Amino acid sequence: MAADEEAKRELPDARSAREGGEGERRSQLPEARSAREGEGERRSQLPESRGSRDIDGERRSQLPESRGSRDIDGERRSQLPESRGSRDIDGERRSQLPESRGSRDIDGERRSQVHAPPNHAETSMALARRRLLELCKRHKDELIDDWIENVLALPPERGRYTDRPVGEVTENVRSWLAAFTRILEDGSAELLDQFITHLVEQRYATGYSISGPLIAASEFRTAVAGVLDTTHDDGDADGTSSIDVLRAVDALLLQFEHRFAEAYAQRSLFASEERYREIVELSSDVLATIDQEGMLTRLNVRFEVLFGHSRQAWIGRPITALAVAADVPALRALVMSASRADEPREATIRCGTRAGLTKVMTVRITRLYGEDASLALMRDVTEEVARRAQILHSEKLASIGQVAASVAHELNNPMAWVMANLEQIRSGAHKLVSAARPVASGSYEDLLRAIDLIDRSCHEALAGVERMRDIVTDLNLFSSSSERKPERVDLVDVIELALRMTGPQLSQLCRIERRYGEMPPLVGYPGKLSQVFVNLFINAAQAMPNRPRDENMVRVTTRFDAGVHHVEVEDNARGMTPEVVERIFDPFFTTKEESARPGIGLWVSRNIVEEQHGTMTVSSQPGIGTVFTIRLTGLNPADLPALRPPPEPPRSSSRGTILFVDDEPMLLNAFARAFEERHEVLVAKSGHEALDLLRDRGGQIDAIVCDLLMPQMSGMALYDEIGERFPQLQPKMAFMSGGAFTASAREFVERVDNAKIAKPISLDDLERVIADLLSGGRKRGH
């Protein structure tokens, strides 16, 4: 483990602090003490201890053996090979003392298995330990004082422990000495283990280097040597020397080092595992391990949150059991391919939850290095996929809208001149009838009948053109799914639009019943609302059983109650079970088994209703039918523009000069014939031609009626050019449009307040707009 390696790397620092392997070991810190003694900082409480050393802190000759074990810079002298011979330069015991090493296991404790009679080295160590125990008891306070003083004198770059509070260092030194004393008394390391646990936790809490406690502990040897020095007690009746005592100290320190390194490594391993568990458990994804057969062996808590199942209950079950039946083969293939591949494998799988919901999951399986197992990461992308599908749905509708607007634009132009010509023919027929009736005789009766036939034919032709205009209007309305501003909406009109759009399919399968109650308009988006009802009508048609048409029914009921618009769409089709009803608004849920791509129609429909401050609910019974109920309060009326007054009947206007600008020559011809008796009419087939006419006439024009969208120069560009050259004419412009289906056209229509006329144009509407322009008025579109 990384922590174990770190501890091992730090151990030589502590050992070098004792043995001076790098030449940095000080002989009982004479420099630190001389610095304090020279500055008058020496404590008076310990005169005996200090009396054995001179002013510069060097050891006196009373203990030649103790001083002989190390030179002035803390290195061991060669005169004492036994002390150095017990360990090599890095603090490990040499092979020359197998008996001493054999009396302890790897952490310095005595082995109980050794029953051989003690040899000389073991006897010497036992006597040294006994003498060290007496020293620790008899000179406890002295040892603690010197030990603390030595630790606090360590330079920061060496000890990395000196920045700890003095109280903490003092308490730790007392605990060290108590633990060492207990080991010397009865061989028990219980106190030492407790203290080491405290040190390791303290290190994790404060973040100091792990070598700090090791170096601080090594100052116990310095303190013991100092006490031996100051007491002039270099030998005993049992034959032990100060060097033997220091060897016993080294054995205790080595035991501490081993146990500390082991405890720190275990604590680091535990912390690493805790971090791993925390990352796994707090993950927003499902994390699972599976064996080579695809059986689940471990799951995080996210599994229970997402799927609603108990983790323990699913251990040992195949991961493929999570997928819906249709996706089981794909998940099984993913598991098998991932178990044989070095690179991760990924697939999108639908999974069922305990609550009966369907979740769309991306499953990524990676084979674990060196193990016969794999890691599966399962991410819930249901909402993301649903949003993506809705965006695609919206883009599809927008594309349909673009096509519809283009078709409408192309249809509106010929319808405009057809309507204009039919109106002129009918008007001419009326004049012929009026002129011929006073002088009618037998020879004129055939003429009158012919004129009447022309009149009826024109009337019916106009009705057909108006019907085509309504269809184009419906198409434009339905395709306007990206409406940017709400409108006043008559829900009955929206429902009828949806019925017209679905009529060819719905009317062949069932009869349609309408029960419309009185309802005021609401504020909303009619194009989006029409999509809701189209979805409901199509679903009803698809659910109809195979029986005679008159036995199938779709009933639409509307009412207004307490400020809420209620709409019920009821059918007597197959109906749905409670389980299906519970999931009917879930994205990607479908009862159509043959569908390769489950739709999101009802999910989108409910979102549209909720967007317009409404709710959408469903009730159903198998074999009886289904009722969808929509309740709407609508958006804020303050967002609406002011209501336009109803159009006034055409009024006569003074004669003026009118310029018609359009790229359809036949439409220009129809307008010219319609107004040439009352006004001077000029026509231009492009914006550039219109500018040439204005330049030739010096801008002397009374009214301009221009198409909004034309090739080369649009009506919008012509408006800007006129503003630069003839600004007085801008208020006298009106615009015709077969559909403002570009972003720039929509922006222009909203920005410019001039009158707008939708194609196909009735001559009455056009005459009304021209009259307003000639009278100086400027009104928005009719």
**Overall body shape:** elongated
- What is the gyration radius calculated from CA atoms? 50 Å
Work out the strand percent: 5-15%
> Could you name the ranges where pLDDT drops below 50 across 5 or more consecutive residues?
1-116, 594-598, 778-782
Reported for the largest beta sheet, the result is:
5 strands, antiparallel
SS field, number of helical segments:
27
Strand order of the largest sheet: 2-1-5-4-3
User: What value does the average pLDDT take?
Assistant: 75
Strand element count:
17
Q: In angstroms, what separates the terminal alpha carbons?
A: 82 Å
The assigned structural class equals alpha/beta
Helix content: 40-55%
Describe what is shown at a glance.
The protein is of the alpha/beta class and about 775 residues long.
Your description of this structure?
With 782 residues, the protein is an alpha/beta fold. The protein is built from 27 helices and 17 strands. The chain has a five-stranded antiparallel sheet, sandwiched between helices. It is elongated. Residues 1-116, 594-598 and 778-782 have low confidence and may be disordered.
